[in-house]
Amino acid sequence: MRPSVPSLVDLLADWLPTQRWFAGKDRPIREIGIGAVTTLLSGDPGLHHLVLDVRQDGRPDQYQLLLGLRRSLPERMRPGELGWLALDAGTRGGTGTYKDAAHAFDAVHDPELARCLLTHMADEAVIGPLRFRHVPGAELDTGLLPAVSTAEQSNTSLIFGDAYICKLFRKLSPGVNLDLEMNLALAKCGCAHVPGVYGWVELRTGGKGVTTLALLSEYLRAGVDGWELAVASVRDWFAQPRQADAAAAVGEFAAAAGGDFAAEAERLGEATATVHRDLARAFGRAELPPERVRAMAARMHGQLDRVRATVPEIEPYVKVISAAFAPLAEWSRPLPVQRVHGDYHLGQVMRTGAGWVLLDFEGEPARSAHERREPSHPLRDVAGMLRSFEYAARFPHTSEPSTPAAAEQGLERRARAWAERTRAAFCRGYASAGGPDPAAHTTLLRALEFDKAVYEVRYEAANRPSWLPVPLRSLAHLTE
Q1: Looking at the record's lineage, which domain of life comes first (predicted)?
Q2: How many beta carbons lie within 10 A of that of residue 246, not counting itself?
Q3: Looking at 177-290, which runs of residues are DSSP E strands?
Q4: Rounded Cα distance, 248 and 102, in Å
Q5: DSSP 3-state helix, strand, coil percentages of the chain (rounded to 5)?
Q6: pLDDT confidence of 399, banded at 50, 70, 90?
């Protein structure tokens, strides 16, 4: 008797929690349903677009998967393998035999299969419920083969030569994706700080409803990731002789042989303010009534309570965090709001020869689609970037093996010095380019920064537990 082979649901139950983009690593999977299935290529190899309904608690979350099937899988595609799939077992359960089985794998790792995203966008193909689109006038080079980006992110990006980057939105939300909507609007405004948009893929969900599946944009081949630049700066600063600690105490280490990020941070602040101005032009401004601000404070407290219940490491900081939220709970005047980036940090920006470019306008992945679409005060993005500087300052020594206490104290002093100088430069650049001056809104900014810090603790505990010490160490400093 031949051994049995798992069904697709069986394979997915084991494979999904191992993926960087899967958002529910902190909870067991209770049920997986196979929703819309669209065959893009039949035979061997085969390619199928799947929408997965993954239930953990409450309503199911939807994810998309380009499922490849090959009876012989090349070694270079092994990183995306789910396992042997019994083609005669169905997708919803049961097992089959090796009589009819194939390697099931994430087809983003197969250039010949994944290139269909580009060719179908060029042709504006319609395949079942899938609609492939390109911007008017765009002429796409369909001869390019894709490679999977190795960048740390909650989606998957395919890089086509040195021309395009196609982002697959792994966790799906109904409607037009914010990244597509906001990039198209900013491009129409002539904003110089966002990449060009070439095309997109959408799923028709019945009637006139759509869900954005992918976004094709300009690939910034000469760009350098902001996180990489900042962490390199921190490492250079940590490598300075101990005598530099005296300068660090007063934040005057710019004359040291390396490790200063202030000039770049100031330019990044200026670019951020410019994008905020263009977002206001594209989508308008509004005022949040005082009662809505107070409701926002209640949501901040609610998130803190939920995180306390699941991440006990945050408990020593709860009192100070709650005190930072208190002024918003008593807010008595309207608060100006507009569209903002919503998940702003160093991993969402790139430094190019022409300046800083902002990416990924989807909002925070752990927030609901409704929360991500809500207008907010521009200082929410400022708070996000300030938090990212705190991350970068502590990431190098937090990720190292255990360090003696005395040495750890010295590293923390340097981390604080780098963060303080960089934060000040960013805020200075932001205000000089017309953004709301952070120095004039310290109460609001402090509440927004702590709310972001609580979100980070929640996110890291669920998605990257090994990173949890990074936001906790900065909280220890900010709550002193």
Answers
A1: Bacteria
A2: 10
A3: 197-204, 210-218, 224-225, 285-288
A4: 60
A5: 45, 20, 30
A6: low
